[in-house]
């Protein structure tokens, strides 16, 4: 797109607006720049804003540092087998933005995105942009996903989402009920129990994994088995695959496994899925034993697959011995209710996941349940794309290292769209080009 006249602008124009300067948005910026496609990246706060301000203090990546990479850039420090803390991730992403020279406008909040005739209007709290394509890279963690029953929590009990929680000092000395036993839930339960509080963990469907297996991190095994590269068009039930909970993993210097057995050894009480609140009484599902048995079974099947992979590759003799782990311990009669007042539960932390926030998108792009309609990131609105969602194009899509392949494929689709689509005169009317 050739520069227009530099007269006072009613709006700014560019080929592509990327919304979000996290790792996904910056990876797309790098691809667009490499292909000489004019664009701008709009960020509501700072670069890597969510990593700086929307994570708990002790959080570390679930993936080892050697796996942390973006297009043309990777971790090259002295601890490849360690796990980055949240602020280290933010610094890594900020360095990448500087490395690629990304055209980021920080402190710009998008208020509305709307398709017009052959272009998009992007209204922000600063100015209006017009563009031919939009890439939504705001991620999968826009809004905490709370069950409807959360509204019935009795007033004396404090309610926090995983985003609200920062560290144990926020809480009084009373007990804590953590709802949800995926990666976030088990890590928060472990931290709070270690702080001297009595923690009860409400457990639903979960994925149990060892941190390391036969001498190697589980992520290296998952890569070798091709599991993380499985594509969205290769699974039978994609909706189900995108809802699979994150595995029970933690990134610690000890490379320790964190599962329900380990939590119980440390004093955490486990109960079934939270299904009701009746006054001060919390009610739990009776399916705890089944949920744990299913997680144990799936872990054993995965380890069978990894052992077979080792034998086929003739690596078995150079690896540690094959292992199988003790079944998850569950009481013969798991507890089905808990009186929050009597048990002195002062806080409930909802580790129940997140959903993306596209409240600013005014387009026929949502299904009847309010979910964005897209095929591997290509939204059902020509010229509109999304990045950073769970299992967007591959199982690894939500990981930092998963952005590279997704961005390459979506970038190629986007470039094809720009070649085919007409350039509307409206785009230039009273516009200043982004580079001026």
Structural class comes to alpha/beta
CATH class of the largest domain: Alpha Beta
Major sheet characteristics: 8 strands, mixed
Low-confidence segments:
1-9
The third-level CATH topology of the largest domain is FAD/NAD(P)-binding domain
What is the CATH architecture term of the largest domain?
A: 3-Layer(bba) Sandwich
* Assigned CATH superfamily of the largest domain: FAD/NAD(P)-binding domain
Count of helical regions: 9
Helix fraction by DSSP (H/I, runs of at least 4): 10-25%
Look at the structure and give the mean pLDDT: 93
Taking all Cα atoms into account, the compactness measure Rg is: 24 Å
Keywords:
about 425 residues; alpha/beta; FAD/NAD(P)-binding domain; 8-stranded mixed beta sheet
Written account of the structure:
This protein has 436 residues and is of the alpha/beta class. It folds into two domains: 11-142 and 356-433, 3-Layer(bba) Sandwich (FAD/NAD(P)-binding domain); 145-350, FAD/NAD(P)-binding domain (3-Layer(bba) Sandwich), CATH 3.50.50. Helix content is 24%, strand content 21%. The protein is built from nine helices and 24 strands. The chain has helices spanning 23-34, 49-53, 86-100, 183-194, 218-224, 238-242, 260-265, 288-312, 403-420; strands at 11-19, 39-42, 69-70, 73-74, 104-105, 110-115, 120-124, 128-136, 143-144, 158-161, 175-179, 199-202, 212-213, 216-217, 269-271, 274-278, 281-284, 337-339, 345-350, 354-355, 374-375, 378-379, 384-386, 431-433. Strands 1, 2, 5, 6, 7, 8, 23 and 24 form an eight-stranded mixed sheet that branches. Helix 4 links the parallel strand 11 (175-179) and strand 12 (199-202). Helix 1 packs parallel to helix 3 (86-100) and helix 1 packs across helix 9. It is globular. The model is unreliable at 1-9 (pLDDT under 50).
